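A quick aside before the break. I want you to see a complete sequence-to-structure record at least once, exactly as it would be stored in a machine-readable document. Don't worry about memorizing anything.
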Amino acid sequence: MHNTFLGQGLVDEIIFNVAPVLECKGLNLLLDIANCQYKDVQLLDFKSLGSDVVQLHYAVDK
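That is the input. The structure line, written in tokens, reads:
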């Protein structure tokens, strides 16, 4: 679903919360390997949410 919205230009911002946890294998929510498209992003803001979690706020170029 994420790829559909990104591919159609319907997403203008993305917010990621990054937590300091190491896992063996992560789940990639944004990339559909068969229909991968490169999108430029610009960092708008970042902030600490406590417990070493950082929030990254990006604008998605269209």
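Two observations worth writing down. The helical segments are 2-7. The two ends are 18 Å apart (CA to CA). We'll return to this after the break.
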